[in-house]
Amino acid sequence: MLTFLMCRRAVLAGIASVVLALTIGLSPADAQTLEAAKERGKLLVGIQGDNVPLGFLDSQGKNDGYDADMARMFGKKLGLPVEFVIVTNQNRIAALQSGKVDVLFSSLAMNAERAKVLQYSQPYIANQVSVLAAKDKPYKTFSDLKGVAIGVPKGSSQDIQLTKLAPDADIKRFDDDSATVQALLSGQVDAVGANQFYLARVEKQAPGAYEYKIPIVATYNGAGCRLGDKEMNKALNDFIDEAKSSGKIAELYKKWINAEAPEFPTKIEGVPYSTQ
């Protein structure tokens, strides 16, 4: 009898553990939808902290930049204050999936591989990724990069593309954009995979010494939410539609990039803009 009771208790305990595990598995990430953000009274936004002029901290430690302005406008449209959470290239998707943030406005280049693990919005900013090096470096093609030490931020578009396009390069991965830029300036690497804003950053410390060498890829950035989150995805797309038609995107381009806003693609292969 005692053995029977012990077995019964073990079975019940096992069932309880499974139920608890399933419950934990649904929280907090699955619970943090748009409605949950409204109940919480604020929107948690993942943003970069060192990527001028998209997402960075100003001299007072305040989040600033193109992405920060976009996120605040989105929060205003929802009627919610925004709380920023600093994320990096390598941890931003995990922060989204775990429920640490509700959405990402984090220089998130749109590609088919990432689209398998998060839901993109439509694009709201374009980016040209290139190899950046000193003017006296003779780099003209990817084959010229054989054995060359090239710095990239971990998990960035630069990292992904150069790993494929320059397999014989000596790719050095750094924690963020600032560390990558400093690696170039200090001579730790001979070149870097750079977004369209890197040259302006290095010019401040080494005017006239560097130039873009090899175009890598033209990318577009979208906001990100969790897979299957139709409500948040629709809210993001409606907001971006409105920001484009009202001229807000054009204003941000002039403010932060000193350029005209481009025509954005209506589709990117392998990247659905809306929850399927």
UniProtKB/TrEMBL annotation:
Residues 42-260 form the Solute-binding protein family 3/N-terminal domain. It comes from the Bacteria. Residues 1-31 form the signal peptide. The keyword Chaperone does not apply. Keywords: Signal. This is Transporter substrate-binding domain-containing protein. It comes from Mesorhizobium australafricanum.
